[in-house]
Amino acid sequence: MKEHKQIILLSLITGLVLMVMKFAAYFLTNSNFVLTDAAESIVNVVASGFAFYSIYLASLPRDENHPYGHGKVEYFSVFLEGALIGIAGVIIILKSIYSIFNPEEIRDLIRGAAIIGFTGGVNGLLGYYMVRKGRTLPSITIEADGRHLLTDTVTSAGLVLGLLLIYFTKILWLDSALSILVGIYIAFTAYKLIRKSVAGLMDETDFTIVNDVVKLLGEKRRYEWIDIHNLRAQKYGNDLHIDCHLTLPNYFDLNKVHEEVKEVEWLINREAGIQTELFIHTDPCLPDCCHYCNMPNCPIRSEAKTEEIVWTMEKVMRNKKHYEQ
Fold this sequence. Notes:
The chain has a three-stranded mixed β-sheet. It is built from nine helices and three strands; from the N terminus they run αααααααββαβα. The chain has about 325 residues and is mainly α. The chain folds into two domains: about 1-200, Alpha-lytic protease prodomain-like (Up-down Bundle); about 205-325, Alpha-Beta Plaits (2-Layer Sandwich), CATH 3.30.70.1350.
């Protein structure tokens, strides 16, 4: 978690510096359009601060009150960030609508555009770095913070173009009109972040991860693994928890059963790309399994194998043995 904290701390310090620069640009220009970027920079700082604290909590070891660890706090961080972005977007829209009917003088647009352009470039580089790191570590908090910065870069680029357009056309109402469009874009970005955080808090299935795990199990399948079903996955920050039922030959002793379970755990943790804790319930095979069982030299086989069942996400996630499907 040390690298996680360093990345978020870098984002926090950078956000503070850029926030000061953006508000300087606003006081210089008196432009609502510039204010949209300055207001969002406050969100950047607050969100990065909470993200830093959430990563600290997520790094704490599991305890009696939190037997699955503290990883889900990262989803709260993303929710807070989305909520703050949404509030900023709504405030920007309301202020811009007010300014259409009560216009104010704007000035020094070129210098303001230069300041905003510089801050947008810095956010773009930092955001790209954080999204990449958020995927490789992995950390939903760092990735969300990075995507927020990339969104800020897009709005800054649009803001610079808008300021130049206002400067050359002298159409002052464009300042408020463009601000409304940016506010709508910011609010939509907030919705996507909130949607992602709620999905995590509600244990919504991450079908990409489940599909990768099922594909891996299918490719590395052993003869002894007759059937896997009722597979469910939950994410707790950087950790993945999987429950499933594994059907094994009913003549295996407890040591052999334990060996096969550990083999499944080892395979997923080695090759799935995410730290995984598995809770595997083992089922003994039944005569109905024989027609798709690959076990060679089986001493209790009641019929020859006649069917090859390919493990797919749909089959493996059902709470049924394959012969019941």
